[in-house]
Amino acid sequence: MRIVSWNINSVRARLSHIERFLKEEQPDILCLQETKATNAVFPAVFFKELGYIYQAIHGQPSYNGVAILSRVPFCEAETIKYDWQNNQEARHIGIELANGVRLENVYIPAGGDIPDRDINPKFGQKLDFITRMTKWSSSLEQPTILVGDFNIAPLESDVWSHRQLLNVVSHTAVEIAHLAQFQASHDWIDLGRHFHAAPKRLYTWWSYRAKDWTVSDRGRRLDHMWASPSLIDKAIAHRVCESCRNWIKPSDHVPLLTEFRF
C-alpha cells in the first residue's frame, strides 16, 4: 500500500499536477492538506474518474481544508474530524482502513511570524494545537499512521541553516520541544528519518520568494509521516517527491510517499 501526503496549497488550482502525479506514482491513498475548498466545491468527481472513489473530505473556503482520497475501501463509519484548533477550522480528517489501521491526516497551523504567544496569538494557537494532539496521542492504542503538514522542522539538518532559523517560526526551540513531547507520547516513528537518517538533506518545502529554489535550496522539512511503533516493520520505503516543486506553478510543498506491506 502506497500512501502519499501533500500540502497542495489549493486543490482546484493544482488539478493538472495532481493528475500527473497520480498517473505517474499510482498511490493507493492520497492525503491532502490546505485544499482551500468547501465540501460542496471539492472536485470529488475528478478524483473518482481517476479511481479514487473512496473519499473523506473536511473542507473550508479560502483557508485550510483536508482530504483523504483512496482507491481502497475504508470504514466510513470510522471517519473522524478532531478539532485540535478548538475553533472549528478544517485541519484534521481521519479514517480506519479495512485492516484496522488508523490513518490520520493533519494540517498544523503555521503560527504566524513572531514566536511569542503574548504578542502573536497565532503562535499560541499552534502550541495549543500540538498540546491537544499530545493528549489524544498519549491514550492512543490503535496502530496509527499520522501524516500531514506539521509546520515544524525539528532537527538541525531539517532546515537550510539552523543558525539563521533558530528564532524563525517553524524551527524555534519551543516548537521543537512541543513536537518532541508529542512524539514521545506514543513513541511515534518518524518515517522520514527512519529511512533517511540525519544529517541527510531531506526538505519538503521551499518558499515562493526564491527566484530559483534549486539554486538557493533554502528548504525546510515541514511535512511528515509518522507511524505507531507496531507498524514500523510494515513500512518498507519512504521518499520525498522533490521534482514536483519544479513543475509550473507548483505548491510550495512536495509530496511524501511511504510504501507499506500489510
TrEMBL record:
Marked site positions, Important for catalytic activity: D223
Cofactor(s) needed for function: Mg(2+); Mn(2+)
Organism: Zymomonas mobilis subsp. pomaceae (strain ATCC 29192 / DSM 22645 / JCM 10191 / CCUG 17912 / NBRC 13757 / NCIMB 11200 / NRRL B-4491 / Barker I)
Residues that, per the record, bind Mg(2+): N7, E34, D149, N151, D252, H253
Site residues (Interaction with DNA substrate), renumbered to this chain: H253
Entries under InterPro entries matching the protein: AP_endonuc_1, AP_endonuclease_F1_BS, Endo/exonu/phosph_ase_sf, Endo/exonuclease/phosphatase, ExoIII-like
Cofactor note as given: Probably binds two magnesium or manganese ions per subunit.
Family as reported in the entry's similarity comment: Belongs to the DNA repair enzymes AP/ExoA family.
Keyword set, alphabetical order: Hydrolase, Magnesium, Manganese, Metal-binding
Any one Gene Ontology BP term: DNA repair
Keyword Magnesium: yes
Endonuclease/exonuclease/phosphatase domain: residues covered: 4-253
Site, as annotated: Transition state stabilizer: N151
Catalytic residues (UniProt): Y107, D149 (proton donor/acceptor), H253 (proton acceptor)
Protein known as: Exodeoxyribonuclease III Xth
Alphabetized GO MF terms: DNA binding; double-stranded DNA 3'-5' DNA exonuclease activity; endonuclease activity; metal ion binding
Pfam families from the UniProt entry: Exo_endo_phos
